[in-house]
Backbone:
C-alpha cells in the first residue's frame, strides 16, 4: 500500500484543509515531503483530465512545499489574467510565453537561476489529449540546469497522487526514457485512453531549437 502523507500538527491551516479535502474525496498523497535539493523539475503524468489540476494543487498544499507550476500565458494576461492571474501566481503558477525568441526552456531556466529555491512541476504532454510522444522541454530544462527530475503521478484507480522517485538524467535519451517509463507502470489517469506514449518527440535529439524548447 502506498505511503499516506499526513501534515504534522504544526502544519499551516491550508495544508490541513487540503489534506482533509483529499481524504474526503478518497485520495491519498504518496510522498514523504522531502525534496533532494533546493531546485529541480517535477513531471506529472498521466494528464488526462481537468481534475488533475485540482488534485495536484491540493497535494502540493498538503505537502506545504513551494512548488511552482507552468500555465498557459492566456491565464496570466488580458481580462482573464486580470481576474485570476494574481491568485494563480499566489498558488505557484508561472506563465510560459511560447512565442518569444528565447523559448520556454530558456525562460524557465532564467527563472530558476534567479531564485535560491525553485521546484517546477509540469505536464510532459502539455495537453489532456493523447499524443504519440512527450514534449521534450522538461528534459532539456532538467539537463540545462543539472537538477533532479521528480516523477509525480496521478493514479485514479488507486486514488493516489504522489512522487515515486527522483532521477538524474544522463543525457542518453533512450536510456533515460526507459527508466522514466518503468516508474509509471500500472498507474493510470482518469481517462486511460488519453494517456500519451512515454517517448520523446521524434526530433527531440536533433538540435532543432524550436522543437527542443516546446512544452
Residues:
Amino acid at each position: 500500500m502506498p505511503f499516506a502523507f499526513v501534515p504534522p500538527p504544526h502544519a499551516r491551516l491550508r495544508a490541513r484543509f487540503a489534506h482533509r479535502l483529499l481524504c474526503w474525496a478518497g485520495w491519498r498523497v504518496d510522498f514523504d515531503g522531502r525534496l533532494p535539493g533546493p531546485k529541480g523539475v517535477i513531471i506529472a503524468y498521466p494528464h488526462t483530465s481537468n481534475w488533475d489540476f485540482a488534485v495536484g494543487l491540493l497535494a502540493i498544499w498538503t505537502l506545504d512545499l513551494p512548488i511552482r507550476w507552468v500555465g498557459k500565458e492566456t491565464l496570466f494576461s488580458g481580462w482573464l489574467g486580470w481576474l485570476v492571474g494574481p491568485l494563480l501566481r499566489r498558488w505557484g503558477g508561472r506563465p510560459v510565453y511560447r512565442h518569444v525568441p528565447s523559448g520556454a526552456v530558456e525562460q524557465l531556466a532564467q527563472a530558476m537561476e534567479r531564485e535560491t529555491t525553485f521546484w517546477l512541476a509540469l505536464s510532459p504532454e502539455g495537453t489532456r489529449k493523447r499524443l504519440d510522444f512527450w514534449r521534450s522541454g522538461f528534459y532539456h530544462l532538467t539537463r540545462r540546469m543539472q537538477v533532479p527530475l521528480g516523477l509525480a503521478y496521478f493514479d485514479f484507480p488507486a486514488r493516489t497522487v504522489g512522487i515515486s522517485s527522483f532521477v538524474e538524467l544522463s543525457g542518453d535519451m533512450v536510456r533515460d526514457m526507459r527508466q522514466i517509463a518503468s516508474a509509471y507502470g500500472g498507474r493510470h489517469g482518469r481517462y486511460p485512453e488519453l494517456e500519451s506514449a512515454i517517448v520523446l518527440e521524434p526530433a527531440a535529439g536533433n538540435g532543432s531549437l524550436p522543437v527542443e524548447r516546446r512544452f
